[in-house]
Amino acid sequence: MQRQRSGDGNVATGFRTAGVLLLAAHLAVVGWLTLRPLDVPWITPANVRPMAGIRADLALGWWPATRRIVEDLALLAPLGVLLPLADGRLRAATLLSLARTVAAGVLISLGIELLQTGVPGQVVDVDSLILNTAGVTVTHLAVVPAGRAALRRRLGRRARPAPEGVDQEAAQGLPPRFPRVPIAP
């Protein structure tokens, strides 16, 4: 496990705080958009077959299909950035970060779809789950690895060597090492 440098701690805390606040705001907007009752004259049946809804939209024309795909991709796409931002890690394995973010995105999308079963006018759609997850994945891959690398480079330039007479490990934020003291008989 890598330890953060002392300067990284303040930056990570700031990013973590901003990430949590933005994540809460985004989830509140998503909840309002997806879980409010709709007053509609008729409701389509629930779609539990993957890609059946997208095929039906494509049969109606390219514009309805494009609109629906883009809406579903964009709904939870910010989670691809906000979840790692709320985690606050500047040094994380790319695949592990992607796996955590995608898993959280799937669970949030699934939770929304399940909550929609009790909302008048809203129906469950497995295609929304697939597209929401794809949006989270694409956004994470497009932004997070490059953003973390840029922040690490920026912080690396600002890092200063420890002053003379100061232990390098103590300057980097590692815990001090104490010699063993024998226990009296």
TrEMBL record:
Residue ranges of the region described as Disordered: 158-185
Keyword annotations of the record: Membrane, Transmembrane, Transmembrane helix
Pfam families xref list: VanZ
Transmembrane segments: 12-35, 129-151
Biased composition (Pro residues): 176-185
InterPro entries the UniProt entry points to: Teicoplanin_resist-assoc, VanZ-like
Keyword Magnesium listed: no
Residues of the VanZ-like domain: 25-141
Coiled-coil boundaries: none
PANTHER family cross-referenced by the UniProt entry: INTEGRAL MEMBRANE PROTEIN, MEMBRANE PROTEIN-RELATED
Protein name (record): VanZ family protein
